[in-house]
User: Fold this.
Amino acid sequence: MNYNPSEFDAFGPWIYQVNAIYPLPPLYKGYSNRLDSALIVLKIPRDIERANASPDMHLYDAVLGLYKSELLLLERREDQVCETLLPYDQIKEIKNYTCLLSGRLTLYTENRSVKIPYNTVSENIIRHAVKIIRDNQAHINRFTGISPMDFNLETMAFGFVNEVQTIIDENPGCYLAAYQPEISHKIPKETSNSVLARLMPMERVKSSFAVLTNMHELTIISRTFYLKKCSTDVYSYHYNYISASNITSIETEELSSEHDRLRIGTGNHVSTFRFEKKNKRMYALLNNRWKTDKHYPLYSSIS
Assistant:
């Protein structure tokens, strides 16, 4: 005999794919007809302890429906539902952040960012959702490519070896194009007060990143952690997925005698990554023949 658990019995930190066993939460029932045609529908739980949940509560903060060319995000606001319909061609960049049990998926458009927090026990299903979006975006080869870069435990940090190999295994034709090993540097302390920020001492951090490509997309895995904070960010990873068709600029900015900053623009959003001037592989990637519709190079240097 099949057992279908109640919504309360099944509740936990897990993201469920909506189906006969795990149905649409009651608050979102009015959208069932629209969600029937989705490739996949996910329900994202509230960020509360199981012990603090009760059967009379709304237990799911969001429902995400992924279609062939767009997504439908339904977000709970008290007892109401707010709707966001987002075509994939409006998504300029995707960032997936993980740190132990904390995860956050961010979708950048021209004018806003859509953020979906989640528990990383469901990281695999989030990666699957990200792949659906990426696979259904426009694919345009924007550069001629450089030879794949070899990597192993002698040339790359252990954490990166595993993550890079996973990306390559999950994405046929993808390869490592460049890698910046861990470097130490200082950044301003985070504060909303711009005057105070100039007076506060700088914080020392360590950062590193790897760039992968399959000719029509850049995947950048990066890590940054603070040396003096009692923080878990030493376990964090950022995954940036940038379709080459969305890249509007690629620039390097001089930061010091030793370091430059890579700036990748996708319209109004810019992602930045610090690297060493002596990193020849990074410049080999940047000086590649990037193609645009107007046949001029995307890459430039900011003096």
